[in-house]
Amino acid sequence: MIDAHQDKKKVVLLIHPMLLSAKEMKLAMTDYLGGEFRYIIPDLSAHGERSEEPYESAKKESERLHTYLLDHGIEELTLAFGASLGGVVLLQLLAYRDIKVHKAVFEGCSVWQHAKALDCIVRTIFIHQHRKAVRNRSLAIRKMARLYGEKGASMAETFIQIDEQSIKNICHDCAFVNLPVLSEEDQKACLFLYGSKEFDLWAAKKILPKEYPHARMRIWDGYDHCAKMSADSMGYCNMLRNEIANSNS
User: Fold this and answer.
1) What is the residue range of 47's domain?
2) Which of 7, 117, 187, 226 is deepest in the core (most CB within 10 A)?
């Protein structure tokens, strides 16, 4: 757990997507967001400094985060940001009523529910791709680099070292997302972001207006899954700073 600038009063939580780490999130985002915030940036299980710990569930990750926040006297978050798998974990954190989140931003977050067929298909694809990556490391790095630029190499390395049970558990979590009940006020604090080319957008367009009618959704035209935050980190963080400025924190 990275806990930076502990002397600052306003707290920003950043939860990385699958295959990134807390260190990489810090390097990519905190300089652009600025030095006036305290940053809480966890490593999810099977990633970063916790790479040896298998990933079990988003619920367990959110429990660990919740405990850390309360143990350190943090009851308010100026911004809570979660990308992809990190967004699924953040949704579980919002279920706790003792942490006030002034602005919650989700990038490429799955909102699929009870999607058994999707779970089976995605799990099969990921396991197949994982075994190919293990056999041909250089090819995996090239593929990741085409999608995510310079971060591609470290993402490929994480994909190679992650265990298959963790991959299965992550795929399950993204197909069986437990959407917490949120008040109108809490929904208005939520912003869901998706690339126009990503698969999860279809479900978001169908599910979010029904489950969270007061939340906002924005689409990054021409971008794939979580690609906007990688392609334009400065612009992306400026957008997050505007969201903070327009919140009630």
Assistant:
1) 2-112+178-245
2) 226
